[in-house]
TrEMBL record:
Family: Belongs to the ABC transporter superfamily. ABCA family. CPR flippase (TC 3.A.1.211) subfamily.
SMART domains: AAA (SM00382)
Entry protein name: AAA+ ATPase domain-containing protein
GO MF term list: ABC-type transporter activity; ATP binding; ATP hydrolysis activity; lipid transporter activity
Topological type in the membrane: Multi-pass membrane protein
Domain spans labelled AAA+ ATPase: 615-799
An example Gene Ontology CC term for this record: membrane
Transmembrane spans: 34-52, 321-342, 363-389, 401-420, 432-453, 459-478, 499-523
InterPro entries, alphabetized: AAA+_ATPase (IPR003593), ABC2_TM (IPR013525), ABC_transporter-like_ATP-bd (IPR003439), ABC_transporter-like_CS (IPR017871), ABCA (IPR026082), P-loop_NTPase (IPR027417)
Subcellular location: Membrane
Sorted UniProt keywords: ATP-binding, Membrane, Nucleotide-binding, Transmembrane, Transmembrane helix
Main subcellular location of this protein, as a coarse class: membrane
C-alpha cells in the first residue's frame, strides 16, 4: 500500500465522532435511563403538587367562608351562595375581602419582657422604658428627649379615645384586651367589629420614660436589654433609639433604631405591631417643640392599610422546592462526563488513540462537542417534560432565558469535568467524588446558600463570592426562576433580567467557563508533554541523572559491552552525524532512571541503550522479567520520558515531536486496550480513519485485517469486544497495530494466550507486514523470536548484552553439542566414562534418575565419533535412549542471562 499522509484535523475529528456515535448506539439504553431521570423527578414534583392542592390549597379552611341562602321556596336548595366575614371561621377570615380597612392608632409598642415579672411590674404593672439619644450636640439631646414621652389620659368609650391613643405612648401591660384588637391587622379588626358601643372607662397611664445620652454611635445596642444582678433582673427596656447626628437649629438629621423583637400570638397568628411611623412622629414633634415652643404639635392620629381583595391559598410547592430538585437534575450530568473521561484515562484508551495518530486538539474539541450535544439534548428534554407536565417553574419563565442559562452552565460543567478528570486515575474514586459534589451542592444550596441569600443583613459581596462556586451559581439561577414563578403571574421576562440578578450569575458562569477551558488546555498539554507545570518560569534544560549514576552507568557499559554491542553503538554514532537516514528507529545512549521511594535507591531501568532498526526489519527484544524491555517500549511510545539520551522515529525526536511521530506508528500493547461495547469492525474502522484511510480503501483494509486474524467469519467482527475471548482480543489488538500500514510498529508479547494454530497464523501476518515496516517485538517465546525476528537483542538489568541474528547468537554463545543418555542407575558411571573418552572438556549439566545431559565443545567432537561410541557402549550395557542436539536459542538466552546476572552480582 502506498505511503499515507498524516490524517488532517478534520479527518481525525470525523474518526472520533463516528466512534462516539457508534459507542452511543451501543449504550442507547443507558442514555434512555439518563433522560428518564428528569422526567421521573418532574412527575414526582407534579404528584407532590397535586397532593398539596387536594389537601391544602382546595381546603375550605384556606378560603373565605361561604353559605348557601334559601330565600324563596324554603326547600333547602341553594339559590345563592354568599361569602363574607360573617360566614367565616377564624381561620377563614384571613382570606376574606376587606374593601374598607378601619383606621388604626399608630401605637409605639413597648416589648414585653422574656423573664419573670420583677417588682416594678408587680406594683405598677409597668417598668421604665428607655430611649437612647446620641448626636453631635450634647445639649440638644436632653432637650428633645423631654418632649418624647407624654402624660397619662383617661380612656372613655363615649369620647374620642382613639385620638388619645394616637398621641400617647402606651406600655404593653397598660392596655386592656379590647384596645389590642385595634393594633394588629385589618382582618382582625373586621372580624371583631364592635356591634355595640363599648361600656368601659379606664385610666391609661403612660410608662415612665428614661432617656439616656450616648457619646458614641448606638449601633445595635437597641437590640440589647439592660440587666443587673445575679438573677438578671430587668430594670428597664429599650424601645427606640434616636441618633441625632448633626441636628441643630438649621438642620434636622436623625437615624431611628427600633426594637422589632416583640411578637404576639393571637388567633394562632404571629403579628408584628406597627411602631415605625409613630417613632418618626415622636421625634418630629420633639424637634418642632424645640424650635417653636411646647405648643407646637403635628397630629398623627391614624394609619390605614391598603384595601384587600378576597384571596385563596395558592402555594406552588413544585416551584418552591424546584431549585434543589433541578440542581440535582442538571448536576447529574457531571458524574456521567467525569466518569467517561476518567474511564478512558484508566483504561489507557486515550494514550492508545494518541499512539495511532489522534492529536490532542481533535480529541479535546470532539469530546467537548460530543458531551455538549448530549447535555443540550438533556436540558431540552427537561424543559419539554416540565412544560408539558404542567410545572409553572418552566411554563411561566421565558424559555429563551432558561435555555441560555442552562446552555452556558452545561458548558461550564463540561469544562470543569475535563479539568477535574486530570486529578483522578480510577473511575470509582471519581464517581464517589462527583456524586458527593452533586448532592452536596443541592443540600448546601437549599439549607445554607438560600438562607444567607434571603438574609438582608448578610453582605452581598459574600453572596457574590459564594456564587463563584459553580454549584451555588446554578442554584442562584434556579432560585430566581422559582421566585418569579411563585410571585409573578407572568414569570421572569427579559425586562427582569438585570433586576433579578441573573446578569451577575451569567457573568460569573461565562468567566469561569473561559478560565476553566484555559486551565484544562494548559494541564492537558503539561500532562501529555511531561513538562514541568512551571516550565515557563524555568530555564530550558534536559533532565539528567545525578553525576554518580551517570558515571557508574558509563563505566559499567564500557566494561561489559561486547563487540557486537560496541559495533551497534558506533553505527548509531555515525547515523547521528548524517542529515538523513533510512533507519526508522534510532536510539542514542538512551537511559531511564526511576527515582527511589521509601528510602530505596534509584532504579536504573535502561542503561545507555544504542540501537538502530531499519525499515523492513523485525527486531526482537529478549530478556527476563524486569530487564527493562517495557520501560524501553514506554519511552518509545511516549508513555515515559527518557532521563537522558535521545531517540528518533523516522527522524522525529520522541521528546519534542512525538505528536508527529504518532501519525506513522502502530502499537500492540501488552494488555488489550479496547472499548468493551464496540465491535471488532468498529475498532478497525476508527483506527483506519486515524491513519487517513477513506472510502473503499478503508473498507478493504478492515476486511483484510479481520480475515488475516480470523475475526471475519461467523459474525465475530460484529460482536462487542467485551464478549471476545482473550485470544480474540489479542488478535484484534495486533490487527489494530497493523491497520493502515504504519512505518513503525511496537508489539509487546503479541501472541500471548493464543492457541498454536492462531499463533502460527498471527506470525504469518506479522512476517508479511514487516516488508515495509520496522517492528520492535518483545517476547518470551524463543520459537516466536526465531521465526519472526531478523535480529535479536538480549536485555539483562537494563543493558543490551548481545545483538545479532538468531543463527549468529547460537553460533557465538552455543559452541557446543548437548548429549543426552538414559540408562539404568548402575550404568551411570559407564556413561560418564563414555563422554570423557569422546570429549575430555565435556560438562554435566543435568542428572536425574538415570538420565544425564552433557555439554560437549564442538571443536572437540565429531558427530561420527559420537555415533560409533554409542554403538560400542550398547554392547556393554543397556541404553534406553540417547540423543545429540545442537544449541537452541533458549540455551543461548539462559546462558547469557545467567552470565550477566553472575557478573552483576560479582561486580
Amino acid at each position: 500500500m502506498a505511503d499515507l499522509l498524516p490524517a488532517s484535523f478534520l479527518t481525525q475529528a470525523n474518526a472520533l465522532s463516528r466512534k462516539n456515535l457508534a459507542y452511543q448506539r451501543r449504550n442507547i439504553w443507558s442514555n434512555v435511563r439518563l433522560i428518564v431521570i428528569p422526567l421521573y423527578l418532574c412527575v414526582v414534583l407534579v404528584s407532590i403538587q397535586a397532593l398539596f392542592d387536594t389537601h391544602v390549597n382546595n381546603s375550605p379552611d384556606n378560603r373565605c367562608g361561604c353559605q348557601c341562602i334559601d330565600h324563596k321556596n324554603r326547600d333547602g336548595k341553594c339559590e345563592r351562595k354568599s361569602c363574607g366575614l360573617e360566614y367565616s371561621s377564624q381561620k377563614q377570615a384571613f382570606f376574606c375581602a376587606f374593601p374598607n380597612p378601619p383606621l388604626l392608632p399608630p401605637l409605639l409598642h413597648i416589648p414585653l419582657p422574656k423573664t419573670p415579672s420583677v417588682s416594678c411590674r408587680r406594683r405598677t404593672r409597668s417598668c421604665p422604658v428607655t430611649m437612647l439619644v446620641t448626636g453631635n450636640n450634647h445639649s440638644l439631646g436632653p432637650t428633645l428627649s423631654k418632649n418624647l414621652l407624654t402624660t397619662s389620659f383617661l380612656a372613655n368609650s363615649s369620647k374620642l379615645w382613639l385620638r388619645n391613643l394616637a398621641i400617647n405612648v402606651l406600655a404593653s401591660s397598660s392596655l386592656p384586651l379590647e384596645f389590642w384588637l385595634f393594633s394588629l391587622s385589618s382582618s382582625l379588626i373586621s372580624l371583631f367589629t364592635f356591634r355595640s358601643p363599648l361600656k368601659f372607662q379606664k385610666e391609661v397611664r403612660c410608662v415612665q420614660g428614661l432617656s439616656l445620652w450616648r457619646n458614641k454611635s448606638i449601633n445595635h445596642e437597641i437590640l440589647k436589654r439592660y440587666q443587673k444582678g445575679n438573677h438578671k433582673e430587668i430594670i428597664n427596656e429599650v424601645t427606640a433609639a434616636y441618633d441625632l447626628l448633626d441636628t441643630d437649629m438649621n438642620n434636622f438629621n436623625v437615624t431611628i433604631f427600633y426594637n422589632s423583637t416583640y411578637k404576639t400570638k393571637l388567633l394562632e397568628r404571629r403579628v408584628k405591631l406597627v411602631r415605625v411611623p409613630r417613632s418618626v412622629n415622636l421625634v418630629s414633634n420633639a424637634y418642632l417643640q424645640y424650635l417653636k415652643g411646647p405648643g407646637t404639635k403635628m397630629l398623627f392620629e391614624f394609619i390605614k392599610e391598603m384595601p384587600k381583595p378576597e384571596t385563596r391559598l395558592r402555594v406552588d410547592v413544585a416551584s418552591s422546592i424546584g431549585p434543589i430538585f433541578f440542581t440535582w437534575v442538571i448536576l447529574l450530568l457531571f458524574p456521567v462526563i467525569l466518569n467517561s473521561m476518567v474511564y478512558e484515562k484508566q483504561q489507557r484508551l486515550r494514550i492508545i488513540m494518541k499512539m495511532h495518530g489522534l492529536g490532542d486538539g481533535p480529541y479535546l474539541v470532539i469530546s467537548y462537542a460530543y458531551f455538549l450535544a448530549i447535555s443540550t439534548l438533556y436540558v431540552i428534554c427537561l424543559m419539554i417534560f416540565g412544560s408539558v407536565i404542567g410545572l409553572n417553574f418552566f411554563r411561566l419563565n421565558n424559555y429563551s432565558i432558561q435555555f441560555i442559562f442552562y446552555f452556558i452552565y452545561i458548558n461550564l460543567q463540561i469544562s470543569i469535568a475535563f479539568l477535574v478528570s486530570s486529578a483522578f486515575s480510577e473511575v470509582k474514586t471519581a464517581s464517589v467524588a462527583a456524586y458527593i459534589y452533586v448532592f452536596g451542592s443541592g443540600l448546601l444550596g437549599a439549607f445554607l446558600f438560600q438562607f444567607l441569600m434571603e438574609d438582608s443583613t448578610f453582605p452581598r459581596r459574600w453572596i457574590f463570592v459564594m456564587e463563584l462556586y459553580p454549584g451555588f451559581s446554578l442554584y442562584r439561577g434556579l432560585y430566581e426562576f422559582s421566585e418569579y414563578a411563585l410571585n409573578r403571574r407572568n414569570g421572569m421576562k427579559w425586562r427582569d433580567f438585570s433586576y433579578s440578578g441573573m446578569d451577575g450569575v451569567f457573568s460569573i458562569i461565562i468567566i469561569e467557563w473561559f478560565v476553566s477551558l484555559i486551565a484544562t488546555y494548559y494541564i492537558d498539554k503539561i500532562s501529555s508533554s511531561g513538562k514541568d507545570p512551571l516550565f515557563f518560569l524555568k530555564n530550558s534544560f534536559k533532565s539528567l541523572p545525578s553525576p554518580g549514576l551517570q558515571k557508574q552507568g558509563s563505566e559499567v557499559s564500557i566494561e561489559m559491552e561486547k563487540l557486537d554491542v560496541t559495533q551497534e553503538r558506533e553505527k548509531v554514532e555515525q547515523l547521528m552525524l548524517e542529515p538523513s537516514t533510512r533507519y526508522a528507529i534510532v536510539c542514542d545512549n538512551l537511559k531511564k532512571v526511576y527515582p527511589g521511594k521509601d528510602g530505596n535507591q534509584p532504579k536504573m531501568a535502561v542503561q545507555g541503550l544504542s540501537l538502530a532498526v531499519p525499515s523492513g526489519e523485525c527486531f526482537g527484544m529478549l530478556g527476563p522479567n524486569g530487564a527493562g524491555k517495557t520501560s524501553f517500549i514506554n519511552m518509545m511510545t511516549g508513555l515515559a520520558k527518557p532521563t537522558s539520551g535521545a531517540a528518533f522515529v523516522r527522524g522525529l525526536d520522541i521528546c519534542n515531536d512525538m505528536d508527529r511521530a504518532y501519525t506513522s506508528m502502530g502499537v500492540c500493547p501488552q494488555h488489550d486496550l479496547l472499548w468493551e461495547t464496540l465491535t471488532g469492525r468498529e475498532h478497525l474502522l476508527f483506527y483506519g480513519r486515524l491513519k487517513n484511510l477513506k472510502g473503499s480503501d478503508l473498507n478493504q483494509a478492515v476486511e483484510e485485517s479481520l480475515k488475516s486474524v480470523n475475526l471475519f467469519r461467523g459474525g465475530v467482527s460484529g460482536k462487542p469486544a467485551g464478549k471476545y475471548s482473550g485470544g480474540m482480543k489479542r488478535r484484534l489488538s495486533v490487527a489494530i497495530s497493523l491497520i493502515g500500514s504504519p512505518k513503525v510498529v511496537y508489539m509487546d508479547e503479541p501472541s500471548t494466550g493464543l492457541d498454536p494454530a492462531s499463533r502460527m497464523n498471527l506470525w504469518t501476518v506479522i512476517k508479511r507486514a514487516k516488508r515495509h515496516t520496522a517492528i520492535i517485538l518483545t517476547t518470551h517465546s524463543m520459537e516466536e523470536a526465531e521465526f519472526l525476528c531478523d535480529r535479536l537483542g538480549i536485555f539483562v538489568d537494563g543493558r543490551l548484552q548481545c545483538i545479532g541474528n538468531p543463527k549468529e547468537l547460537k553460533g557465538r554463545y552455543g559452541g557446543s553439542y548437548v548429549f543426552t543418555m538414559t540408562t539404568a542407575l548402575e550404568n551411570e558411571k559407564d556413561v560418564e566414562m563414555l563422554v570423557q573418552n569422546v570429549s575430555p572438556n565435556a560438562k554435566k549439566i543435568y542428572h536425574i534418575a538415570g538420565t544425564q545431559k552433557f555439554e560437549m565443545p564442538k571443536e572437540e567432537v565429531r558427530i561420527s565419533e559420537v555415533f560409533q561410541a554409542v554403538e560400542k557402549a550398547k554392547s556393554s550395557f543397556r541404553v534406553f535412549a540417547w540423543g545429540l542436539a545442537d544449541t537452541t536459542l533458549e540455551d543461548v538466552f539462559i546462558k547469557v542471562a545467567r552470565t550477566s546476572k553472575a557478573f552483576n552480582v560479582f561486580s
